[in-house]
Amino acid sequence: MSSKLKYTDNLPVYMAGLTNIKNANSVQYQWLWENGCEHRHRFSRHFGCFLKKYNITERVGFIDIETSNLKANFGIVLCWCILADDGTLYQDWLTKKDVLSGTEDKRVVSTCIDTMQTFDRVCGHYSTYFDIPFLRTRALIHGLSYPEFGTLLHTDVWRMARSKLCLHSNRQDVVAESLYGKTVKTRISHPHWRQAMMGNEESCMQVLDHCNKDVIDLKRNYDTLLPYCRVTKSSI
């Protein structure tokens, strides 16, 4: 590598889309090492300056999962939804075929992980303590690859609400009701939860709709609280 620092306004095509330095390949990292920012530091050290200079923004996804139990060694993932910041909704759910195959939620967990990895940052509500570790546990149980530390950023909107608001509860629906006067959250009867575990299509659609509504409230709460919060580089 050349030791002389370069400054350029032209970003090579192969650098487009790089939002996390830990995901840089050898060619991309060499370019970051050879080129610098206005502070006369290499982009490999001032990666934030690289993102700012070339107006590169993170792709953010708002995630929610519905499960049959609060603990991943007893429960399975019934469905998941990820709402992209551009409004695109990604989702998957447990089917009768999954149940009959004997693989439980392996396919559903796999598609969730694959979709998560198309984003730079995932946001959830209480996801530090539930969604993220639940998915990680189910992935490890199934022998699936899960994003390692530093490869995917994570924001917990529950933490944002707890630190920036003063409410009687920091539940997602309470935050929405308090800030906007209502929540889109739905309620599901116990029979539908039980039937969804067996892959019943009608019940799975009820649970999936509930999950869809949750990510709508989640994104709205995030967008409202973001101006009052510091965007961190926390990893899942």
Please summarize what this structure is.
GO terms for molecular function: nucleic acid binding. By secondary structure, this protein is α/β, with parallel strands linked by helices.
- The coarse overall form would be globular
What is the straight-line distance between the termini?
33 Å
| H-E string | HHEEEHHEHEHHHH
Number of domains: 2
CATH uppermost class of the largest domain:
Alpha Beta
> Would you identify the regions where 5 or more consecutive residues have pLDDT less than 50?
none
Structure classification? alpha/beta
InterPro entries: RNaseH-like_sf, RNaseH_sf, YprB_RNase_H-like_dom
Pfam family, one: RNase_H_2
GO molecular function: nucleic acid binding
Organism: viral metagenome
